[in-house]
Amino acid sequence: MKTDRSCPPRAVALALLAAMCFGLASMPDAAAEDADALYAEAQIKAGTDEAKFLLKKACELDHVEACKAYASEMNVAIFFGDDLSTQEQFWAYGRACDLGDGEACVLLGNARTPIGMFGADRNPENWAGAVAAYKRACEEHEIAEACAKLSDVLSHGSNPERDASAGRAYRQRACEMGYETSCGSSTSAPSGSGNASTPAEPATTTSRSARMPEPQTPTRAYVDEALMDQLLKLYDSDWGSLILSTKADFDVVSAGIIADNQVSDEEYDLIQEIMYRYDRPGASTDPIRLRWTGTEDAVRNEGRLMNIFVHRTFRQNVRFEELQALLDFEPVDLAWNDADRPGTLRQLFETSLQSPAMAETVKPVISAEVAKLAAASTVENAYKPFRGLVMDGMNVINEFEGDDNAALRTLFHDAIEDGVAGSPVTIPRFLYNWIDPVLGIAPPPSANTATQN
Fold this sequence. Notes:
Residues 181-217 are annotated as: Disordered. 51% of the residues lie in helices and 5% in strands.
C-alpha cells in the first residue's frame, strides 16, 4: 500500500492532519477542537509536567485560556529566579493578549511591571513592556484597572521613559471610568459603570487598589540608615513595632523619605505598601517587615524583626493625596547660585515651607554657604562676607509673613549655627542670634544698612 507523501509525516493533532490530508474538516475548526481537547486533558492532569506541555500546545493553537493557564504555571519557578520561565510567561500572556483577551494584557503588564517588592527586573525592556501591555488593556479593552496601573508605571521615578503628565492623564481616565482609588481618597467615583471588566463599586466598599500589586504577607521593606533613624522615632516598645496612626507619624516618614531630595526605589516600594494598607483597612493587620540595607541587621530589638503597622486611624488623619504626592515627588533644584544669592535663598526658603522634610533638606545647603563665608570673615574686614549673607537672607525672609516668617527665621538661624560650627573662624553670636524668633529679639532697625559698613 502506497503512502500519500503529500501529508506531513508528523502532525500536532489528528484533527489537523485529517483536515490537511483528507479534507474531513476545515483547518481552523479542527485546530480549535484539538486545542479544546488539549486544554481539557491538561485540566485533568493539573499540577503535572504533562499538564504544562498540553497547555503550551493548546496555547500554540490559539487557545486563550490555555495560554493564561500556562503562564500562571510559571509563577513558582519565576519566584525562584528561573529566567526561562519568566520568558515563557511573557510569551503566553502576550499571545493571549494578541488574541484579543483584555485580562491577559493586564496580566502581562503585571508580570512585566518592575514595581513592588516582587516586581520584574528593572530594565528598559520591562518598563516598556509593562507600558505597552497596560496601554492595550486600557485603550483597546477599556479596563479601568489597566489605566490606573499604566499611570503608576508611567509616573514611576525609576522608569527611564518616565512621563508624569501622561501618568496623571491615565489616572484621571481611570477615575472617570469609575475606578475609585484613582480618584484619591474620595468615597464615591464619578457616575457611570466604567467597563464590564472593572465596574464601579458601591461607596460602602473598598475597591481593589489600582495603585500597586498585591503584596506578599508578611511583606519585607528595605530602607537605608537615614530613613531608619526617622522611623525609629515611631518605635513603640510596648508593641515592639512601628505604628502609623497620626499625621505626625506621616510627617516623620515623609521627612525620612525625601530627606535626600529624592524617592529611591526602596522608598517607593515602602510607600506603596503603606498605601495598600491605607486603601484596605482590613489589611492593616498585615505588617510591613522592616529591614535595613546596611551591612548589619540594625532593626532587631529583643531578637525580633521590627514591623510597621498601619493603624485604622491613619486613614482618618492622612489624606490619600498626601501619600500620592510622595510617589509623584520631583527633586528640587537646590544648587547654590552665587550670581543671584537673594534668588537662591528665596528658592530655598520657598522649598523649605513645603514640608518639614524639605526644610531639613534645605538647611545643609545654606549651612555650607555659611561655613564658606564665615571662613572668609575676620575682625579686620568686620565679618562683612558673613554679614552680607545674613542680611540678604533676612531681606528675603521679611517678604514672608506670619507663621512662614517665623519658620524661616528658625530655619535660617539653625542653618547659620551649623555653618558657623564648621568654620575655622569664630563668629560672634550677636551677629546672628537675633534672627531666632524664640529669643524675641527684634532685628536691627535697618538691615540693609548693615552691609554698607
